[in-house]
Amino acid sequence: MNTALWIISGLLATAFLFAGLTKLFVPRETLAKAPGGGWALQFSPRFVKTLGALEVLGAIGLILPVLLGIAPILTPLAAVGIAIIMIGAAVVVYRLHEFKHVLVNLLYLALAAFVAAGRFAG
């Protein structure tokens, strides 16, 4: 179980680190041109940057607390935060009728919930 948690945490951390850094450093208009990026124009640039920062913090929180043994409760809390972000993302892309991206967001949500449950239990 611990191996599965580490693998999924690593995959989620990689995905959210990349996504967060992209939101932080790529202009909103450029993000909107990417496949599935139409949502970006519905939000302010400040919101997109804040979302990117939260995703980067979530990615860090999935790995470092457990790895370093310092406040390991932060890891399942980071997973819960990512799950909440994914709920919001699924709602937004559903409203845009981008159903393929809804499925991707729900997959990330399920993986984050698995990590949260596994780390809270362990």
TrEMBL record:
A UniProt-annotated Pfam family: DoxX_2
Presence of keyword Transmembrane: yes
InterPro entries: DoxX
Membrane spanning stretches: 6-26, 47-71, 77-96, 103-121
Keywords carried by this UniProt record: Membrane, Transmembrane, Transmembrane helix
Record carries keyword Transcription: no
Entry's localization field: Membrane
UniProt protein name: DoxX family protein
Principal cellular location given in the protein's record: membrane
Gene Ontology CC: one annotated term: membrane
Membrane topology: Multi-pass membrane protein
